[in-house]
């Protein structure tokens, strides 16, 4: 269920998505408010779970993680025990940036960030040694055209 937020909340959230390291004074100035109301609104948005965490966005290539793979997984197993093992395995793998359960022919899609194809193979071998998977297709991203963590407000 969506939280009840107004235009000022959206302005504050937009500023935080752009740069969460901004001071309260900067956010207040940019949103046409003052520091205390901005702080109170941010506290309210955190308490409501709208703001989940504060973090930084790193450049993966500058950290040697030059290969981004999208991994399509089909499974013939849909029992709770298998799903629990699969989810636990994914949570333990830092290479997995995102994991989604899908409707349609593909059961799961993973976004995996590694140094190169050899590092992907190490990840793949570890994954299939821990969890039984019917079919895996890996797609290498040749170029990242758009990437954002900012939600449309």
Describe the protein.
The protein is of the alpha+beta class and 153 residues long. The protein folds into two domains: 7-47, Arc Repressor Mutant, subunit A, CATH 1.10.10.10; 61-140, 2-Layer Sandwich (Alpha-Beta Plaits), CATH 3.30.70.920. It is built from five helices and four strands; from the N terminus they run αααβαββαβ. It has helices at residues 7-18, 24-31, 35-47, 80-92, 117-130, and strands spanning 67-74, 96-101, 108-114, 135-140. A four-stranded antiparallel β-sheet has the order 2-3-1-4. Helix 1 (7-18) crosses helix 2 (24-31) and helix 2 crosses helix 3 (35-47). It is elongated.
How large is the radius of gyration? 20 Å
Distance between the termini: 16 Å
Q: Any idea what the CATH superfamily of the largest domain is called?
A: Lrp/AsnC effector binding domain/regulation of amino acid metabolism (RAM) domain
Domain count, please report it.
2
* Number of helical elements: 5
- Helix amount: 25-40%
User: How many β-strands, per DSSP?
Assistant: 4
User: In what order do the strands lie side by side in the largest sheet?
Assistant: 2-3-1-4
Shape: elongated
Q: At CATH's second level, what is the architecture of the largest domain?
A: 2-Layer Sandwich
Poorly predicted regions = none
- Please trace the helix and strand order, writing H or E for each element: HHHEHEEHE
**CATH topology name of the largest domain:** Alpha-Beta Plaits
Indicate the proportion of strand residues: 15-25%
Structural class: alpha+beta
CATH class of the largest domain: Alpha Beta
Mean pLDDT, to the nearest integer, reads 96
Q: Biggest β-sheet, characterized?
A: 4 strands, antiparallel
GO cellular component, one term: cytosol
GO molecular function: sequence-specific DNA binding
Keywords: DNA-binding, Transcription, Transcription regulation
Organism: Litoreibacter arenae DSM 19593
């Amino acid at each position: 269920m969506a939280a009840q937020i107004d235009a000022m909340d959206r302005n504050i959230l937009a500023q935080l998505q752009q740069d969460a390291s901004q001071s309260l004074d900067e956010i207040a100035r940019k949103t046409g408010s003052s520091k205390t109301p901005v702080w109170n609104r941010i506290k309210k948005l955190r308490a409501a779970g709208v703001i989940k965490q504060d973090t930084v966005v790193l450049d993966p290539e500058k950290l040697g993680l030059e290969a981004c793979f999208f991994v399509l997984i089909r499974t013939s197993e849909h029992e709770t025990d298998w799903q629990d093992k699969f989810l636990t395995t994914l949570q333990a793998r830092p290479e997995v940036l995102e994991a989604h359960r899908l409707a349609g022919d593909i059961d799961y899609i993973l976004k995996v960030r590694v140094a190169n194809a050899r590092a992907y193979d190490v990840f793949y071998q570890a994954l299939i040694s821990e969890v039984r998977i019917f079919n895996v297709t890996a797609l290498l991203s040749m170029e990242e055209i758009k990437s954002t963590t900012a939600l449309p407000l």
